[in-house]
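Propose amino acids for all 303 sites.
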């Protein structure tokens, strides 16, 4: 585990590669798993665009999704995004301790998450707003093999979905990375969760080649993963209906509760699918709630 420094929270000078990106992810969920969502800001200065995603989901809710892939890149150090029907801002209020998200946008509401894979998704246009804070609730975890870190958090604030106002007091995770990310070449799995007893879990693995992650309680890291393999059971549109994660520390069972996938079109016309789900996660004796994602590039084959 690499020690994360306060300066790591800020934007970084880009490399020369076309797919060099700087990414901020922030997800949230209630303890019960009845509601969740996430935000991602991806800056691609060499492509001249920013990607912005935001959503609200739940087992008894329609998916409300914002997926903007043509916003301009804000001048450093800003993380403020503007596009048609979208304003959003991310702010590091206190490095490694507090990050906030503001959002005013129109989301696309759909009944079937797979509808978002269509060339032109069809749904209802619904106002979506966030005024949320991610407050550190554990130990920032820096990767040693790449420029990335993960921070378990409490998440509080207000969510607006249409004419509904939701007061959130929940949990989640945020991460920040920079470097080349080719969605159309590599498969990977990522997850984070909070168990009902307060333990925090994280795991990421790529093509069964390597794995990273942790178990932690408070600021104590109980275990660092060195091996992670994901075994999803695929349903329609290759969206998993269940999954098993095998780590050097045991197995985790994944039961998706609500999906919020994204279709990713490359400048060359390739298409990757990116199913991401609010899920229940357990190890047989304990369970909790979190998020899981699978990147499925062109030619994706279940391993």
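Proposal:
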């Amino acid at each position: 585990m690499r020690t994360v420094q306060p300066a790591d929270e800020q934007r970084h000078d880009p490399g020369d590669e076309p797919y060099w990106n700087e990414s901020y992810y922030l997800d949230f969920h209630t303890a019960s798993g009845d509601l969740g969502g996430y935000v991602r800001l991806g800056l691609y200065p060499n492509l001249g665009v920013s990607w912005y995603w935001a959503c609200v989901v739940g087992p008894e809710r329609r998916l409300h999704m914002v997926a903007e892939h043509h916003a301009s890149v804000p001048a450093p150090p800003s993380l403020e995004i503007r596009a048609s029907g979208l304003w959003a801002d991310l702010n590091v209020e206190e490095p490694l301790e507090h990050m906030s998200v503001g959002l005013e946008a129109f989301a696309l509401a759909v009944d079937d998450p797979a509808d978002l894979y269509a060339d032109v998704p069809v749904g209802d246009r619904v106002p979506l707003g966030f005024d949320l804070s991610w407050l550190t609730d554990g130990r920032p975890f820096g990767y040693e093999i790449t420029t990335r870190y993960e921070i378990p958090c409490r998440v509080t604030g207000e969510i607006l979905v249409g004419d509904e106002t939701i007061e959130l007091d929940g949990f989640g995770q945020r991460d920040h990375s920079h470097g080349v990310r080719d969605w159309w070449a590599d498969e990977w799995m990522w997850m984070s969760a909070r168990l009902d007893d307060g333990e925090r879990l994280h795991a990421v693995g790529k093509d069964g080649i390597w794995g990273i992650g942790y178990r932690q309680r408070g600021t104590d890291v109980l275990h660092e993963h060195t091996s992670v393999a994901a075994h999803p059971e695929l349903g329609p549109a290759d969206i998993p209906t269940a999954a098993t994660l095998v780590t050097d520390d045991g197995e985790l069972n994944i039961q998706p509760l609500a999906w919020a996938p994204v279709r990713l079109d490359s400048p060359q016309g390739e298409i990757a699918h990116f199913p991401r789900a609010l899920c229940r996660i357990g190890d047989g004796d304990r369970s909790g709630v979190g998020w899981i994602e699978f990147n499925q590039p062109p030619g994706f084959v279940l391993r």
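The mean pLDDT is 95. Residues 17 and 180 are 7 Å apart (CA to CA).
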